Automatic annotation (TrEMBL), chain A:
PANTHER family: 5-OXOPROLINASE SUBUNIT B. This is 5-oxoprolinase subunit PxpB. It comes from the Bacteria. Residues 4-209 form the Carboxyltransferase domain. SUPFAM superfamilies: Cyclophilin-like (SSF50891), PH0987 N-terminal domain-like (SSF160467). One of its GO terms (molecular function) is 5-oxoprolinase (ATP-hydrolyzing) activity. It is an enzyme of class 3 (hydrolase). Pfam families: CT_C_D. The gene is pxpB. Keywords: ATP-binding, Hydrolase, Nucleotide-binding. Its EC number is 3.5.2.9. It comes from Dyella lutea.
TrEMBL record, chain B:
Residues 24-309 form the Carboxyltransferase domain. It comes from the Bacteria. Keywords: ATP-binding, Hydrolase, Nucleotide-binding. The keyword ATP-binding applies. Gene3D superfamilies: Cyclophilin-like. It comes from Dyella lutea. The lineage of its organism: Bacteria, Pseudomonadati, Pseudomonadota, Gammaproteobacteria, Lysobacterales. Pfam families: CT_A_B. This is Biotin-dependent carboxyltransferase family protein.
Amino acid sequence: MAPIRCEPLAEDALLLHVGEGIAPGTSDRVLAATAVLMRALPDVECVPAYASVLLRFDAGSWRTPGGPAPHQAVGEAAMAALASPDAASPSAREVTVPVCYGGDAGPDLAEVARLTGLGAEEVVARHAAGHYRVAMLGFAPGFPYLLGLDPVLAVPRRADPRTRVPAGSVAIGGAQTGIYPDALPGGWQLIGRTPLRLFDPAADEPAALRPGDRVRFASIDAARFDALWAEPGR
Amino acid sequence: MSVQALRSGLLTTLQDAGRPGHAALGIGRAGAADGPAWRLANALVGNTGGEAALEITLQGPTLCFERAARIALTGAPIDASVGERPLPPWTAVDLPAGSVLRLRGMRQGCRSYLAVRGGFAVPAVLGSRSVDLHARLGPLGGRALVAGDVLPLDETGGIEAIDQLRIRRWGVDPQPWFDFALGPLALLPGSHADRLDAASRERLHRQPFRLAASSNRTGARLEGEALALAAPLELVSEAVLPGTVQLPPSGQPIALLAEAPVTGGYPRIGQVAAVDLPTLAQRRPGDAVQFVSITLDEALERQNARERDLQRLVQRVLDRGESER
């Protein structure tokens, strides 16, 4: 494992390079580092991505007379925290996401079946059997990028992105799977839809999924989807 | 008591200091694109609580004030009037009840700020009254103002009833808070700047780019002779910030502004220094944008000095306004 490298991005931001590429092992290291840093540096905003962690801070409050520049001070504090053996463990939450696969809920399921050479049922079975982890959120509030997709299910994005993907759509884009929290434009292949509300700005926890959460999908039928979708407070 | 929008203007949004602290959930900060102008507008009307103001883009709205109100306009110099009376920018003005404030074009610049004493009484979302247009977050359902919208005013900001418009005799000198000279912008090195080919590296700091009409609160799109990488670069999504200059495959850079997304997958070829970010946000389509390199230490020093000056000025404006009550 290469040592973590620290790059100043801006006057108030540092990027910690933890590894390279999109891989569960790298992401696990990122998430572990993020958990340590969030505990050690409560006034620094820590934002995990696939292979790096952004640290954003108030440069003014990290300035000391005659001391190091703020980004240097934050970088040193971060490295010291990561070197300490008292590592905090990242989120161990496990969230089950109900998904209605195929049909109107997953208009690209047949295309994914064609691209993978599997039957639609096999695609659903493999997708629902996976153990996933939220590597990061981005693109839109509450949009989780999940790692752990069965490599057989990795399919390219649509050549012709949709201008509007329905809220709750469960989709595959390359080696990742994700869930559209809201009606959004998007180019991923839609294989199903969840009635779970992924983002609610008025809630104490606005995002249903956080970085590091472990996610399982549970297949539900259209009637169950409709019933859950209609629940008050959804 | 409230303000009603009779016309919306081109793109008018409520903005405050933004929504920090939620990037890990995919939520960007948004907030005023020209922070110093927003802060000074608030100071001129006596606001000290980071109140939301209207950020007005290129063409302003027409607003009807149901009650008497103290307002101030800062940022880009906007053509403003009540009835026949033109209003000076960077100055507090007291409007009688029933005033119709007409805001039109800007002689220069792209964004003006309208602050009202007491602020707008709209609910905060995740701690901020900033509208995030892409995420559809914030007051008004996270959208821009439309004709017919009614914005309630906070009653703590009420002023005594008056018959006539009153323009305060003093204001703030827009220099150096508005860049009339279209000077070069300081650029910090980006993570992938050294991956540009030699000609592009030079072009990034030499050529005057033009701000494209497709620019918005998310990014300033820069047009010029295309920049290219020396070799293709495989990147995964990583954090981006306001000021990050990204290079999409078109070779035309995008400098992210206040509504920057939290992550991006394009090469980062530069970072506009914080001290010059408000200036970039004031460039309008067709304006020149030229970069000059700066080191992180210099950028920090300039930003510090600017922040110190701004805090001092805000305090002076607040004290003087208070002493006249």
